[in-house]
Amino acid sequence: MRNHAEELRALQDTLYFIGGKWRLPVINAICNGHRRFREIERSIPGITTRMLSKELKEMEMNNLVTRTVYADTPVLVEYAPTAYCRSFGTIIQEMIRWGRQHRKTILKGRADKP
Amino acid sequence: MRNHAEELRALQDTLYFIGGKWRLPVINAICNGHRRFREIERSIPGITTRMLSKELKEMEMNNLVTRTVYADTPVLVEYAPTAYCRSFGTIIQEMIRWGRQHRKTILKGRADKP
User: Fold this and answer.
1) Which residue from B minimizes the CA distance to A16?
2) Where does chain B show beta strands of DSSP type E?
3) Which of A70, B16, B34, B97 could staple B29 via S-S, CB 3.0–4.6 A?
4) Strands A65-70, B76-81: parallel, antiparallel or unpaired by DSSP?
5) B104 contacts chain A (CB < 8 A)
6) Residue B1 CB contacts under 8 Å (≥ 6 apart), including other chains
């Protein structure tokens, strides 16, 4: 028998960890090869500098990204995904798949109406 | 080449649709066979009557559940998942898997510390 309480706890742990609308888009951007702050920022329309900064700090604390500072002029900062960050790959891919299907359904629904 | 903007849009559509911390737990409860309001409520610790009521209304409007009223005494109301509701199955399963793994990692991390 499935243990509903244990499943629910695992699901809620994940939802809590993902928390908010920016975490997964930022993880996706970094896993897709965006490395610098401005690069990541530009790749996610609507995110503010403040929100991205907050996300990246939390993600560094949670071992989702590593932050490397190159003592260049000007100083170069690069973010890289950890294995932990990449562990969201399947969830993100499933969400992309769902979102595409949802868009098709919505557009079809509109087309079906007289 | 992957279209980052299109992927991001699909991901954000899904995140928007899932919106908030209760939608997926409620979907999961209904897909797991909970049918009556009090059943669903009891299966999700922490959810308030008000929040569940709001979720179910929105889910009915969004074609995620059907609501059937049986003219009994007292009136019996049952919620059932639509195919659309079940389309979240893979995302939910992946999130449960991730949450379990995360818990193991956290517990292991604690055990490793002196």
Assistant:
1) B21
2) 65-70, 76-81
3) B34
4) unpaired
5) no
6) none
Delineate the domains of chain A, giving CATH numbers in brackets: 4-87 (1.10.10.10)
**B1 has pLDDT over 60:** no
Angle subtended by helix axes A89-112 and B89-112, to nearest 10 = 160
Burial A29-41 (b: 16+ CB within 10 A, else e): bbbeebbebeebb
Is the CB of A95 less than 8 angstroms away from the CB of B96? no
CB contact under 8 A, B21 and A7: no
Measured between beta carbons, which residues in chain B are less than 8 angstroms from residue A101?
87
Give tens-digit pLDDT for A71-110: 888 889 999 999 999 999 999 999 999 999 999 988 887 7
CB-closest option in B11, B16, B25 to A12? B25
pLDDT, residue A10, reads 96
Give the helix/strand (H/E) hosting A101.
Answer: helix A89-112
Residue B35 and residue B80 in contact, taking contact as beta carbons nearer than 8 Å: yes
Is residue A24 within 8 Å of B15, Cβ to Cβ? yes
